[in-house]
Design brief:
By secondary structure, the chain is of the alpha/beta class. Helix content is 30%, strand content 28%. The protein has a single domain (39-351), classed as Metallo-dependent phosphatases (Purple Acid Phosphatase, chain A, domain 2, 4-Layer Sandwich).
Length: 354
Amino acid sequence: MRGFITILFLVCATLLSIWGVDNSIVYIPSFQSKPATVERIKILFAGDIMAHMPQILKAQQGDIYDFRPSFQYVKPLFKDADLTIVNLETTLSQTPPYSGYPAFRSPAELAAALADAGIDVAVTANNHSLDMGCSGIEQTVHILRKYGVAPIGSFRDMADQYRRNPLVVERKGIKVAIFAYTYGTNGIDAQDGAIVPGLDTVRMATELQQCVDVDCKIAFVHWGIEYSRKPNREQKELAAFLHRVGCQLVIGSHPHVVQGAESSKREVTVYSLGNFISNQRERYTDGGIIAQVSVEKSDDGCSFWLDINPVWVRLKDYVVIPKSIGDTLTMSKSERTAYLQFMQDTEKIFTSQF
């Protein structure tokens, strides 16, 4: 066989020479595949934004309120991200009276401060969604949108839910769909057609599986037991379920303390981000984490990498302080003690995982 191929090659070369074709150049076609296109984005998730009355009074300047100083140290982190999402655990209003726990009603200027800090999305599905009834949902959604922050998780009626759910955001060629759910609304029933999606697994599965033409699905879930530092069985089972029905990122809130996380190249679960800002002062409640998820899209789909950035709230002025700032920031002795305690407690949670 090898001899036959050799003879055939010589015959072809002779014919080419006879016909006057230059056989000094041999063209070898390339079968190399086109380099894969890869897009990358960075998504930040921050925990519970609460507005107790001491925070509101601290922000008050006459007839206006300025919450911007609270976010001065995290603003560069948010501005550097492609997408930043927080849990807004209060309703918003253009006019007083304002109130804290147990029925939250906060000045509209809080939304302005969130936008100024670089926050893109506010999740409004939580146990305080209906603190001010259906009108509270309407006002909160309107105010957030007015300042350029996209709301997701509470709706005026079915038509509003149909228009805005899920929230789809595209960054650098990566399309992300955001869903939000809560275990309940403190026993307050939705009136006048208002909707706050609950933990209905049938509905959740339907919504997630019907959502197509996106690269990544995020479920922001208000769940778990308040002040419990470990996820319970229900949280773990629901997270596994959400991943099975096509949700890559499951992000939790409600416990007001940091819980653990699980991550792989194909999916991420953060059980509780803790408090991003609040007036809560007990150990474990005076801070939270910013979960950074790096998303890489290639021909094989999306891959994910999780990083944790602890943040602590300096309570005298309600300023959120990330570890990168807090380690060198001037503090009183009592503040330094509380700061170090929170950082050590948080590190213990994630040491075994990262």
